[in-house]
Structure formats: structure tokens, C-alpha cells
Hints:
The chain has 243 residues and is of the alpha/beta class.
Amino acid sequence: MNSILRDRDSFTTEELKPFLILPGEEISPVTIRTRLNALKRSGIITPVGRGLYTLKKLHNYTPEIDKSLREVYLVLRKQLPLTRICVWKPSWLNEFALHIASIQIIVVEAQREAERAVFEVLQEALKKNSSLTENLLLLNPSTEDIDLYVSGQSPAIFVGRLITEAPIMESDGIVIPRLEKMLVDLFSREPALEPFGDAEMDRVFRNAFDTYAPNADTILRYAARRGKRQEMIEYLTSQKLTG
């Protein structure tokens, strides 16, 4: 199995079946599932989508949460404890890029109709907190706004909307996006991720899939929320990232 499938990004249950059955053996679908589950538990195969697996040894995606990001999150969590909030840094994608983007941006995303409240809390925090005062604060900035007001070396905080059912996770007490969310946001031309657009985007996707094998089902569900499901299917297929 290893010699045939090891260089594949992923393979289907049907492609795996010949390696689960002894010559001349007739087994039920239940037995197939049992053997698949045994391979998953032992770490020999890893699911990367519905009916898709990989043999690659994968790492958990855990980007560095620095002091400034933690500070912003904790300020908001204290003032708005019931608001669904996610924080992240576009610079996290530098891990997958060839050309390193020099950007000092924190993105804060909040549930629908809470963006203004988050913005106002941060306005007050920037006045009182000396470690945050240098940040430029923008609400739902467009690509043009960023080009006009944010230079490569200037720290900034962008406040925007967290799309319903976006894939997020908690890491060290801070709610951040899963890798699948960042990839879909990049594909959807999120203004904060503009430095990773065009040709760089293909490299980011390829390296992300090679290192972490993001879950294709999660990507497509979130892409659907952003109205990009079909485009995403076509892109992943064209880049040979699935199947």
C-alpha cells in the first residue's frame, strides 16, 4: 500500500479497498469499515475529507499566538463575554509563502451585528493601553482602504464580520481560525490577505496541503457559506489537491 499510495495527496475508500482484502476473500461493508477504523486509530491513514485519506504524516496546525494578539482577544473577552469572536494574523500564511509579506495586522472578526461594539471597545482600549496605542484601527476595511491607510510596517487592527459556521478553534485559550478558514478567506480575496493573492495563492495552498492536509469537506462547507463552493471545487481539482 505504501509504495503505491505514499506519493498521493489523497485517495478514496475504493482505491484503498484492494489493500484491505485478502486474495479471494469476500467481506461485508461493515468489515471494510472496521479495518479502515483500525488503520485510522493506528495512524497509518488520516482522513482528509469524506471518503478521502492520506498516508502523509501530518502536523497539527497551531500558529504562534503572540502577546499583542492575546492582549486584544482578552480585552474583548472581558468587555464582551457573550460575543462570538475570532482573532488572527495574516502573517501566519508566511509559513506557506515564498515571498514573505511584511505586515503587522491583527484581524478581529465578530458575530453579525457585533462589529461596531467590538470596534468601540478597541477604540477605548487603544487610548488606555500603551502597548496597543500605535495600532491603526479600521472597521471592515476594503482593499482600497488598506492601500491608502496601512503601510507595510504600520501595525493595524481590522475589525470585520465572522461568517456563520466559520471553522474556528481554541488554541491556548484564544479563539482563532482553523487553517481551512484562512485558505477559503484567501481564495475569496479577503482584503487583509491581499499580499498572498494571485500566483502566491497557489503556493500557499500547495504547501498547506503538503504540511497539514486540510479537511476538504470543511473547506467546501465554509466556501459554500461564502458563495464560493463551486469555484473552490474547480480550484482544488485544477491544483490536484483532492482526489
